[in-house]
Amino acid sequence: MKPPEPPADGRAEVRIVAASPETARRVAEVLRHCFAATEQRSYPAGSDGGTRLHLTVDTTHTPQRARPWLAASRSSDQDRTQRDEV
After folding, report:
1. What is the pLDDT of residues 1-39, one digit of tens each?
2. Radius of gyration over alpha carbons of the chain, in Å?
3. Where is the region Disordered (predicted)?
4. Domain count, the chain
């Protein structure tokens, strides 16, 4: 299986996995307030239930009001590779 092509420069593919569709939609809505984004695509998240939501964000078109928050944000001490990442 061929790995997926990376998105165009300035864009990022985002995958949200949540126990409920509503929770995933809320997270996607927050991202849309910070970045231009494509329409979300929703899928079942496996045999345990839940929802997986995909969207593409464009980091080159950040709304003006979000910039101070983005500049002030810092990585948490909990940054670590997830079990399904390579």
Report:
1. 787 787 888 888 999 999 988 999 899 888 888 888 888
2. 14
3. 41-86
4. 1
Q: Tell how far CA 50 is from the center of its chain.
A: 16
Query: Based on the number of CB atoms within 10 Å of its own CB, is 53 exposed (0-12), middle (13-18) or buried (19 or more)?
Result: buried
pTM, entire model: 0.62
What is the C-alpha to C-alpha distance for residues 13 and 10, in angstroms, rounded to an integer? 10
What is the spatial distance between Cα 81 and Cα 9, in angstroms, rounded to a whole number?
Answer: 23
pLDDT surpasses 60 at 70: no
Q: Of 25, 32, 13, give the one whose Cα is nearest residue 50.
A: 25
**Is 13 within the bounds of a domain?**
yes
- Two tokens, residue 74: 């810092």
Token pair listed for 12 = 């990022």
Question: Do 51 and 24 touch, CB atoms closer than 8 A?
Answer: yes
